[in-house]
Every structure is written in C-alpha cells, then in structure tokens.
Design a protein that fits this description.
The chain is mainly alpha-helical. It is 74% helix and 0% strand. The chain is built from twelve helices and no strands. It is globular, with a radius of gyration of 22 Å.
Length: 313
C-alpha cells in the first residue's frame, strides 16, 4: 500500500517555542565571547529545534500508522493507538520539560549587552519606595519559625503547581491542554527573553542575603529551598519575578477551568508573592512587575493563541 507523505504542521506552541530557540541561537552566536561555555548551550538549542520537528513528524507518522487500513493485525490495532496517544501527550506537554534548561541557559547569556549587574538600579527603586530594602528587612523582622515555614512552603508550591496543573488538564480538560501549555509557555518565554539580556540577580546580590538563602535554619521547606539555592548554579533572572508571573498564570488558568482549585492557587500565590521578597530572592520591584507580567501575559497569550489557532487549522 502506498504511504501518504507526512506533512509537518506547526501548532501555536511550536511557533513560539521555535522563535524563542532561534532568539537564543542568535544571541549566543552574537555574544559568543561573552557567554560562559557557549558551545554546549548552542548545541542544546540546536538539538531542541531538531527534536521538536522530529516529534511533530513522528506524531503524524503514528497517526497515519494507527489507521485501521494500516494495521493488519489485532495486536497492531491495540499497540499503535496507545503509542500514538503517548506521543500526543508528549507533543502537547514537551515545552514544560524544557523550562529548566531554558532558565539555566538564559542566566549565562545575560552579560551579552550589559557587562555588569544592574541590581544597584533596582535597589535604588526599592529604597526610594520604602526607605529600606524589603528583601533584607522583611525576612529578619518577621523571623517566626512557623510563619517562616509557611512562607517557604508557599514559595515551594510554585514547583508543585507547574507539575500538577498540566497533568490535571490532560486528565480532565484535555481539549484545553494546548491552550494551557501555550499560555504558560508564552509567559515563561517572555520572562526568559528579558532574563537573557538583562542581568539582575535580585536580593541575593547582597552577600548577606546570598548567605541567608543557603541556610537551612527552619523547617523542612526552608531546608528544601536552602538546598535548591545552595546547589543551583544560576545567577540572574530576577526581573520580572517569573515565580509570581507564572504562579498567577497557573492560578488564572485553574480558576477558569477548575474554580475550587483556582481559589487554592490564588491563595498560595498571594503568599508566594510576599515570599519572593521575604526569602531574599527578589527586589520588591521585581515582584510588582511579576504581577503585571502575569496578568498582561495571560491576556496577550489568550488573544495570540486564538489567532494562531485560526491560522494553523
């Protein structure tokens, strides 16, 4: 039987992911001598581009192979659709698996345009607002062990939300999963784009704050976050706060499709927003723009997703 040609058709999420990858390839190529160990990162992005195109092709290939006329045996009729379903999930979910690599990679490219950290400027904004630095003062003024543990748990809940919500969408709102991943990724990529050229460390720019973020002098979640920040190699990626922006986007998505879960996420995000400053990770102005980025990014991403979806049907 003659096989039909497999046509690679990009979805909205593919377009924005590939655009971000090409931006990083251009940035690394342009600032090769200002990027720490650029070759592995460049190869990594090149590999991701190739893998995305291969994944798109393989899904369409398995879709064709799963058709009854292409399955001569009963075993084939069972196995191939299952493989296709698994590939379909990966096809929808794959950007989530790239977020960590993207974040770590942009943190080593942000000196291409600026040779020094810009934190003194952001410090001055916080000081002009408060007369002191909240990223230093709040954590020391309110050093109650139970409050501290709750605040650190709220910050840690960010990681749980990122993992939890896509799985819930896949199980209960599969038809909306593409929209969810697109909106989430769009806001992530916007933050990463800013991080890739704007060198801001955040509260840990101050040596004492850096030391405090590595001290496990509290409960289990304080210790977990101390472990993460002790072993994480990244510096930078503070403005705007992607923690707040993404937590807010996840909350709005949950609220739209799972009202009760949305209330829970919004509750946690409120404390998480305070935690970004309390835990010495961000300047206060980072948090403010994290909120703005979350709301504006969510709205822009919805509009863009609808328009791209209409064009790629």
């Amino acid at each position: 039987m003659k096989q039909q040609a497999i046509i690679i058709k990009l979805k909205p999420i593919d377009w924005i992911t590939l655009i971000f990858c090409f931006w990083m390839l251009l940035l690394i190529g342009f600032g090769w001598n200002r990027v720490h160990n650029p070759l592995p990162i460049f190869i990594g992005y090149f590999t991701i581009v190739a893998a995305i195109l291969l994944l798109i092709w393989f899904k369409e290939f398995m879709k064709e192979q799963s058709k009854p006329e292409n399955c001569p045996s009963e075993v084939c009729k069972v196995v191939r659709p299952k493989i296709y379903n698994a590939v379909s999930f990966v096809r929808s979910y794959y950007p989530v698996t790239l977020y960590l690599f993207f974040f770590l990679s942009v943190s080593v490219t942000n000196k291409v345009f600026f040779s020094d950290w810009l934190d003194p400027f952001f410090q001055s904004i916080d000081f002009a607002i408060f007369g002191y630095l909240p990223s230093m003062e709040w954590g020391m003024r309110f050093d109650n062990i139970w409050l501290k543990e709750w605040i650190y748990f709220s910050y840690f809940s960010y990681y749980l939300m990122i993992i939890w919500l896509p799985v819930i969408f896949y199980r209960r709102q599969r038809e909306a999963m593409d929209e969810m991943v697109f909106i989430l990724s769009f806001v992530f990529y916007f933050c990463y784009f800013i991080f890739s050229w704007l060198p801001v460390v955040g509260g840990r720019y101050i040596p004492l704050a850096m030391e405090m973020t590595r001290q496990a002098n509290g409960g289990i979640f304080t210790a977990i976050m101390a472990f993460i920040y002790t072993n994480s190699p990244h510096m930078g990626g503070a403005f705007p706060s992607s923690h707040i922006a993404i937590a807010l986007v996840l909350s709005l998505l949950a609220f739209k499709y799972f009202r009760k879960l949305g209330y829970l996420f919004l509750f946690l995000t409120t404390f998480l927003s305070f935690a970004t400053v309390y835990c010495h990770y961000h300047w206060f102005i980072d948090a403010v723009f994290g909120v703005l980025t979350g709301f504006l990014g969510y709205w822009v991403a919805q509009v863009l997703f609808r328009k791209l979806s209409e064009r790629t049907k």
